[in-house]
């Protein structure tokens, strides 16, 4: 079949070749039918798609967490030291 378009995303990709060179080599040498491509959007775009369409192709791989209790109280902010 056709190679699966695959994008590597996330903040760590900003490390450049230190991360991307070995990761790219591992993906292309894996024997899996992948074709590396640029991301079609940013992480918020992906989150929006998941939130709006539960029938995405990878739904079985997504873990959706729902809060079952009320939000816990927030801790009181620390008092800043008095200025001298």
UniProtKB/TrEMBL annotation:
Domain of life: Bacteria
The protein's name: ATPase
Source species: Streptomyces rubrogriseus
């Amino acid at each position: 079949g056709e190679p699966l378009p695959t994008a590597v995303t996330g903040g760590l990709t900003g490390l450049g070749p230190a991360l991307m060179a070995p990761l790219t080599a591992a993906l292309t040498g894996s024997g899996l039918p992948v074709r590396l491509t640029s991301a079609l959007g940013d992480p918020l775009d992906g989150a929006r798609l998941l939130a709006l369409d539960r029938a995405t192709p990878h739904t079985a791989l997504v873990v959706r967490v729902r809060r079952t209790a009320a939000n816990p109280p927030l801790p009181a902010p620390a008092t800043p030291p008095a200025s001298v």
